[in-house]
Amino acid sequence: APSAALRGALYALGAAVGFAVMVALIRHLTASLHPFQVAFFRNLFGLAFMLPWLLGTGWGALRTRRLGLYLTRGALSLGSMLAWFSGVALLPLDQAVALSFTAPLFTTFLAAAYLKEQVPPARWVATAVGFAGALIVIRPSFAGLEPATLLVLLSAVLTAGAIIVIKSLVATEPPTTVVAYMTLVLTPLSLPVALPFWQWPGVEGWAVAVAIGGFASLSHLLFTRALALADASFIMGFDYARLPVVAVIAFFAFGESPDIW
Questions:
Q1: How far is residue 237's CA from residue 153's CA, in Å, rounded to a whole number?
Q2: How would DSSP label each residue in 71-95?
Q3: pTM of the entire structure?
Q4: Residues contacting residue 117 through CB under 8 Å, at least 6 positions apart
Q5: pLDDT in tens, the chain (261 residues)
Q6: Cα distances (angstroms) measured from residue 15 to each of 12, 214, 219, 231, 239
Q7: Cα separations (Å) of 67 from 61, 64, 173?
Q8: I want to staple 102 with a disulfide (CB 3.0 to 4.6 A). Which of 115, 136, 156, 159 is the partner?
Q9: Are 125 and 40 in contact (CB under 8 A)?
Q10: How far is CA 209 from CA 28, 38, 193, in A?
């Protein structure tokens, strides 16, 4: 049977592909709807995809003594999501994703500091090399740090915080419960910030919103299972797989050609 680390790596790679597709769908939908409204739809339909599991297992599956930690994770995730969706609407996709790869670096530091994970030197080197690659990709935009760039960096810091909370949660909670709580907490939290910008989408807009929710829930399930199987600092290295997938999608879907960097 495959080792826990190998299974964790495969789950993490599956999550990376799912998140890449989700980002492309977000870019498409934010062309016609405000990013905050798209964030609400992502949570609403993410919750809809979790409901069959909730109905099948019963609401008893949500029993927990760690509600405070779930709420902390929800607050971090909402801040990260609003900043991320806004950045994706404004930046070329490959640049936005490259900037988001500061998250593994922040996560590795936090995992060592707060979770007391023993991070081998080779993993620090791999994280640093991946981060250097991300900086090379976005180097031209550093002529002036535009607000969209700062939004994605803020999202990366908040994401790292949320991942550390998730890693703590999966020590005692099933991955499906962790993802279900995320959608249960984020859906009502994200509605008030979406309402001031509300527009009713067309048929295609609803279809894309549903797809975003589906890919979000599936990818978060895969990612949470990966964190349950291996160290956070190990799993986050596989997040870099999002970049080539996003670059291919951006080329064919939006005509965005990666520059030499």
A1: 18
A2: HHHHHHHHHHHHHHHHHHHHS-HHH
A3: 0.86
A4: 111, 231, 232, 233
A5: 689 999 999 999 999 999 999 999 999 999 999 999 999 999 999 999 988 888 888 778 788 888 999 999 999 999 999 999 999 999 888 888 888 888 878 888 888 888 888 888 888 888 888 778 777 766 655 555 678 888 998 999 999 999 999 988 988 888 888 888 888 999 999 999 999 999 999 999 999 999 999 999 999 999 999 989 998 888 888 888 888 899 899 999 999 887 777
A6: 5, 12, 4, 16, 8
A7: 13, 6, 11
A8: 156
A9: no
A10: 10, 7, 17
Q: Which amino acid is at 142?
A: F
Rounded Cα distance, 167 and 164, in Å: 5
Contact 251, 258 (CB under 8 A): yes
Residues in the chain: 261
User: What type of residue is 222?
Assistant: L
* Residue pointed to by tokens 């902390």: 72
Token pair belonging to 139: 């180097």
Q: Which two tokens stand for residue 236?
A: 């986050």
Q: Which two tokens stand for residue 64?
A: 């927990």
Sign of the four-CA dihedral 31, 37, 42, 48:
negative
Q: Which two tokens stand for residue 151?
A: 């939004």
